[in-house]
Structure formats: C-alpha cells, structure tokens
Amino acid sequence: MTKQELGQKLEHLDPGATLKIEGDILRAAFADTAARDLVPVVEAFAVVYRCSFSPARQDDTCVCFEKDDVF
Predict the structure, then answer these.
(1) Could you tell me the sign of the dihedral formed by the alpha carbons of 26, 28, 29, 35, in that order?
(2) Average pLDDT per run of 10 along the chain, which is 71 residues long?
(3) pLDDT for the residue 55
(4) In 11-22, which positions are buried (b, 16+ CB within 10 angstroms) versus exposed (e)?
(5) What CA–CA distance (Å, rounded) separates 7 from 57?
(6) Which of 3, 9, 14, 46 could be joined to 51 by an S-S link, Cβ 3.0–4.6 Å?
C-alpha cells in the first residue's frame, strides 16, 4: 500500500469508522521516514484526512486510524 492509497482509504471512511492495518504495511508506505520519526509523521498525515492515529501496543501488530465524527 502506498501513502496515496492509504489517503484514499482514510478519505472514504465514514465518521466514527476505523481502519486497522498491519504495522509492516504502514512502515512500507512511509519507507522514506526514519523509524524514530514515524509516529509524528503518520499522526500529521492522519490529521490531513480528519482522522486520529493510534499506534500499535506491544501485544498488537495493527495500527488504527479513526475518522473524526465532526466535519
């Protein structure tokens, strides 16, 4: 998945809906970003699409985007 494809998926989410993706897929989409900078860059990317971003916890391999329910 590319950043553009991820952006399209986030754009089409209904308010309050979530999108979970594997952390490996997210890292591949943002391969041009250093690992230490990944979370802030992805959070800023999510805001552009009116979403919040929840990084994976230690026991979970998926990350989650949630569409804001206020436009």
Answers:
(1) positive
(2) 95 94 92 90 96 79 88 59
(3) 83
(4) eebeeeeebebe
(5) 23
(6) 46
> 38 is written with which tokens?
């990944």
Query: Which amino acid, 12?
Result: H
pTM as predicted: 0.86
Cα dihedral 32/33/38/44 (nearest 10)? -90
CA distance 33 to 14: 28
The first and second tokens of residue 45, run together, are 């990317």
Question: 66 with 52: CB under 8 angstroms?
Answer: yes
How many Å apart are CA 38 and CA 35, to the nearest integer?
A: 5
* Encoded amino acid at 44, one letter: A
In angstroms, rounded to a whole number, what is the distance separating the alpha carbons of residues 71 and 58? 32
